[in-house]
Predict the 3D structure of the following.
Amino acid sequence: METRFQRALDVARRQEARSLELRAAMSLTRLWHRQGKRTEARDRLAEVYAWFTEGFDTADLQEAKALLEEHRKFLCQQVQDDGVRRPAEVKITSAQLQPIQRAGLRDDTAVYQGL
């Protein structure tokens, strides 16, 4: 399954079909999340989501935003469960934070450990 989603991403990227690329990225994100590859899942979806500058009211972009929010909540819960709360140690660049801000998500730096 992963290979097929990766191929769909590659084809959509070559064709510059951003909506199809987003759909493939969301599918791959769901798969990787189930497999425990949460950082990779979040990074891939955030990378594709960052391309968009408009159309945030469409179903696909709203779903992508919800997936990113789900990952944010999961990471926040993981931080709380592990007892790790070190926002001062989290280093993220504005370029890494940009897709999260575009998505309208909270920018709690403690949550984005690993970005």
